Amino acid sequence: MTCEETLILDGAAKSKEIYKEIKTEVEKLNKEEEVVPRLSIIFVGDNPASASYIKLQQKVCTKVGIDSKVVNLPKNISQEGLLAELDKINNDDSINGILIQLPLPAHIDDDKIIRKINPSKDLDSFHPYNIGELVIGGDAYIPCTPEGVMALLDKYKIGVKGKDVTIIGHSNIVGKPMALLLLNRNATVSVCHIDTKDTAKYTKKSDIVIVAAGVPNLITADMIKEGAVVIDVGINEVDGKIVGDVDFENVKKKAAAITPVPGGAGPMTIAMLLKDTVKSCKNMLNK
């Protein structure tokens, strides 16, 4: 396998295709139902990385015709104050989707906030109801990053049925729901994490490796079998550059297909957020 033969899974290009589809759906909702899908983003504090990501989300929302509003709350807001703000959004029928920008300040109990979100507006799929639906393969919202990974594989016609897949990282946001999505499509899934004794033992035999650990260059070429598909969800800053969890230049010499960072899984995450906002809007219209 040479570098020239490796398929680069271009999430930036594929997400633009999805944006066009979403824009068409939004225009149809505007015309036929006289509604505009609306997204509310709760942002507590002033974390610069979070603020930058929210601006990017809003920019793309504007492009496809989705109305997005940031509820910016002070970092010293009480838990009761945050729950009260969330109640207002839960009860506002004009708002179709809710995002809680994480991390929340240390004095806030994340679990209590997550459990308070209206499950029908929970686009991050943090609420236990949506996680339970995901476990049984129900029609729930799916965390946007795993959903985006699956959409990217589908766009490139990379099947997962019967494949050996290793996921590195077992967070509630990526690793665990990623495993469930793959299991629901009949992949054979291994999940590795910080306490796994020998991660390479799993990755070396895998047809697909999905990495979401937040460790630069964690996955090296000697850990990947020839012809594997490698999906890098990691985002790290090293010497002022954004890099993933995979040693891209060396791993791509062995991989059949690989995502770049940036431009791979990241853009697909935002595309799924927009897609699910429109889905929620349609669901609320059909109630």
Could you please describe the fold and organization of this structure?
- This protein has helices spanning 11-32, 48-64, 79-90, 110-116, 128-135, 144-155, 175-184, 199-203, 248-251, 265-285, and strands spanning 7-8, 38-44, 67-73, 97-100, 164-168, 188-192, 208-211, 229-232, 236-238, 241-243, 257-258.
- It has 287 residues and is an alpha/beta fold.
- It folds into 2 domains: 33-120, Leucine Dehydrogenase, chain A, domain 1 (Rossmann fold); 144-266, NAD(P)-binding Rossmann-like Domain (Rossmann fold).
- The radius of gyration is 19 Å and the shape is globular.
- The N and C termini lie far apart (52 Å).
Chart the SSEs and their pairings.
Layout: E1 7-8, H1 11-32, E2 38-44, H2 48-64, E3 67-73, H3 79-90, E4 97-100, H4 110-116, H5 128-135, H6 144-155, E5 164-168, H7 175-184, E6 188-192, H8 199-203, E7 208-211, E8 229-232, E9 236-238, E10 241-243, H9 248-251, E11 257-258, H10 265-285
Parallel strand pairs: 1-11, 2-3, 2-4, 5-6, 5-7, 7-8, 8-11
Antiparallel strand pairs: 9-10
Helix pairs in contact: 1-10, 6-7, 6-10
Estimate the global geometry from the Cα principal axes: globular
H-E string: EHEHEHEHHHEHEHEEEEHEH
CATH architecture of the largest domain: 3-Layer(aba) Sandwich
> Main beta sheet: strand number and arrangement?
6 strands, parallel
Beginning-to-end CA distance, first to last residue: 52 Å
Compact summary:
The protein has about 290 residues and is of the alpha/beta class. The protein has helices at about 10-30, 50-65, 80-90, 110-115, 130-135, 145-155, 175-185, 200-205, 250, 265-285, and strands spanning about 5-10, 40-45, 65-75, 95-100, 165-170, 190, 210, 230, 235-240, 240-245, 255-260.
